[in-house]
Task: inverse folding
């Protein structure tokens, strides 16, 4: 079965979020290091706490559809994570889940459409666009890549995150640094690349 006709069920989405939590745990130090250069030095710790809470609530409440998994995870991130990352990641997952509705299984193409809606909601919330040195620089190419394959989404997100290094930040805390934000990878783009890599891992 190719990933074009694979049906992604509730268990798949639980696997995705479990893989994300594991990746955030593993990379928390690096994310915080990136954030210490151009932010509040708490991105890794905040996301670690948030995805630990997501893992716990999914065990406790056991949602039964893909959309319900993502909606519950998004609500938990908004409630539990401080700074900008909680509302932004929470909005991403909650809006994606809302777009999936009550469907019991979804295709990769359907997920790409829903994730696109989630990314658009993040852009609206943060007032950012491509090239502003934010998580959108990883997420926008990931959505395009996901229309092709999970691996293409993962690679596009990773490349998008690395492409933030030479950019000057135009949104968020890093924008206060002006030219000094140049030369650093955006921590939100780096963590977004982890989220998309975990999606590809769940698919594999």
Result:
């Amino acid at each position: 079965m190719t990933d074009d006709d694979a049906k992604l069920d509730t268990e798949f989405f639980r696997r995705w979020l479990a893989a994300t939590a594991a990746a955030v745990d593993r990379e928390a130090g690096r994310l915080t290091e990136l954030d210490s250069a151009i932010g509040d030095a708490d991105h890794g710790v905040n996301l670690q706490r948030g995805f630990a809470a997501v893992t716990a609530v999914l065990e406790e409440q056991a949602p039964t559809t893909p959309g319900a998994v993502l909606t519950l995870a998004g609500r938990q991130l908004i409630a539990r994570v401080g700074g900008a990352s909680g509302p932004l990641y929470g909005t991403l997952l909650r809006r994606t889940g809302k777009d999936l509705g009550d469907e019991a299984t979804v295709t990769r193409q359907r997920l790409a459409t829903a994730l696109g809606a989630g990314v658009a909601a993040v852009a609206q919330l943060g007032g950012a666009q491509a090239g502003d040195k934010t998580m959108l620089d990883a997420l926008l190419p990931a959505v395009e890549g996901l229309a092709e394959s999970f691996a293409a989404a993962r690679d596009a997100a990773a490349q998008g995150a690395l492409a933030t290094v030479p950019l000057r930040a135009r949104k968020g805390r890093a924008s206060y640094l002006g030219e000094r934000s140049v030369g650093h990878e955006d921590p939100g783009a780096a963590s977004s690349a982890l989220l998309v890599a975990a999606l590809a891992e769940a698919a594999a």
